UniProtKB/TrEMBL annotation:
The gene is CDCP1. Coiled coil: none annotated. Residues 219-322 form the CDCP1 third and sixth CUB domain. Keywords: Signal. It comes from Physeter macrocephalus. This is CUB domain-containing protein 1 isoform X4.
Length: 343
């Protein structure tokens, strides 16, 4: 009991100190200048849950809520309250068009820099449009990413939401990811939308990823996981828990240290009603004479895999009247060989 009280005291003190730091910054004036042709827009809007509108205002030549800043504009503003982070969020969207010219590829910068932005929850969004046959690869420098289920949240509040454009109007959710995991690269085709959520109390000032163009990957996406040591990763089919898009192909690649073994287990899945082709998973396993090894989702999946391997999920042409839902959540467990006698 005494221990608990002590913990509460420390937490309370922390809140008070934070409050003081915020207060000192209150009334600050901000200036955001977005260069012409930068294709960046900034929006400062009420957060969720929305507090009563008269508690805090954005002041810039009068009260303006929400405040929207377009490329080519310079806006000076301040807040009428001491704690704007409790009322507002900021969304920074950059559109990158690779259809009309070469893409500015490489390391992605947070622009405008977090040092000129007010201390609010920030969402940086990059919307990249490319031609149908161009592969786009997102590469995550350390830390690598850990996939979470839709609606789950990350312990530090830093969240990566990644979608792929499959035609001009349709986006497919590839997944939502936290910052400590195994996912090192995600390859998509045609277009990518990446949203990075940074809560106001987090001091991260870099995006943590780069974008590269690749040749066509001839499928919805490829997700690469790298294991340095023993561990596990839980991964999901695109759009999970909703249905995997009809007649699509998705691949996961696994990089595993040579002295360890991998076991694949399907945690949850359902299949759709196919009129043409069969839904299946295919493994490319080093040393196998029957590559690719084809399994139904209900089959027992391979264990004791030595070396790097990949796993692909192939959808089918669904019954239009009663399509059903193809979805898969699975785990890859990497550990030392458990039993020498079983291969
Ligand atoms: C902004 O978009 C235009 C038209 O899509 C494009 O030509 C230009 O290169 C883009 N600028 C930047 C900095 O991405
Ligand atoms: C800011 O983010 C935190 C944690 O992610 C959340 O609890 C809080 O409600 C958000 N604030 C606003 C104003 O949306
Ligand atoms: C990442 O964080 C979660 C939650 O804190 C933890 O359960 C998990 O083991 C961590 N994973 C890795 C790979 O560090
Ligand atoms: C990010 O913060 C670190 C340490 O605070 C600093 O050294 C670095 O220059 C900053 N980077 C950017 C892009 O602002
Ligand atoms: C990536 O884009 C550059 C410039 O547009 C081009 O020269 C290169 O061939 C592209 N690479 C691939 C793999 O498509
Ligand atoms: C899967 O693995 C096989 C064998 O290692 C390789 O030939 C193939 O290119 C891989 N495919 C993908 C999409 O990673
Ligand atoms: C190892 O595998 C063999 C054959 O698969 C089995 O009979 C034995 O019980 C296993 N031993 C352990 C310790 O799991």
């Amino acid at each position: 009991m005494a221990g608990l009280n002590c913990g509460v005291m420390v937490a309370l003190l922390g809140v008070l100190l934070l409050g003081a730091a915020r207060l000192a910054r209150g009334g600050e004036t901000y200036e955001i200048a977005l260069p012409h042709g930068s294709n960046i827009t900034v929006l400062i809007k009420p957060g969720v849950p929305t507090l009563p509108a008269n508690v805090c205002h954005i002041i810039s030549k009068g009260w303006v809520t929400p405040l929207s800043i377009k490329a080519g504009e310079t806006v000076v503003f301040s807040f009428s309250c001491q704690d704007p982070q409790n009322h507002f969020v900021i969304e920074i969207q950059k559109n990158i068009d690779c259809m009309s010219g070469p893409c500015p590829f490489g390391e992605v910068h947070l622009q405008p820099s977090t040092s000129v932005l007010p201390t609010l929850n920030r969402t940086f969004i990059w919307d990249v449009k490319a031609n149908k046959n161009i592969g786009l690869e997102l590469q995550f420098s350390l830390p690598r990413l850990r996939q979470i289920r839709w609606g789950e949240s990350c312990p530090d509040g830093v969240t990566h939401s990644i979608s792929s454009r499959v035609d001009t109007t349709t986006m497919v959710r590839i997944g939502t990811f936290c910052s400590n995991g195994t996912v090192s690269r995600i390859k998509m085709q045609e277009g990518v939308k990446m949203a990075l959520d940074l809560p106001w109390f987090h001091n991260r000032n870099v995006s943590g990823f780069s974008i590269t163009n690749r040749s066509s990957i001839k499928r919805l996406c490829i997700i690469e996981s790298v294991f340095e040591d023993e561990g596990s990763a839980t991964l999901m089919s695109a759009n999970y828990p909703d249905g995997f898009p009809e007649d699509e192909l998705m691949t996961w690649q696994f990089i595993i240290p040579a002295h360890l073994r991998a076991i694949v287990s399907f945690l949850q899945f359902s299949v759709s009603n196919c009129v043409k082709k069969e839904e299946r998973v295919e493994y490319c396993i080093p040393g196998s004479t029957t590559n690719p090894e084809v399994f139904k989702l209900k089959d027992e999946q391979p264990g004791n895999i030595a070396g790097n391997f990949n796993l692909s999920l192939q959808g089918c042409d669904q019954d239009a009247q009663n399509p059903g839902i193809l979805r898969l959540q699975f785990q890859v467990l990497v550990q030392h060989p458990q039993n020498e006698s079983s291969k």
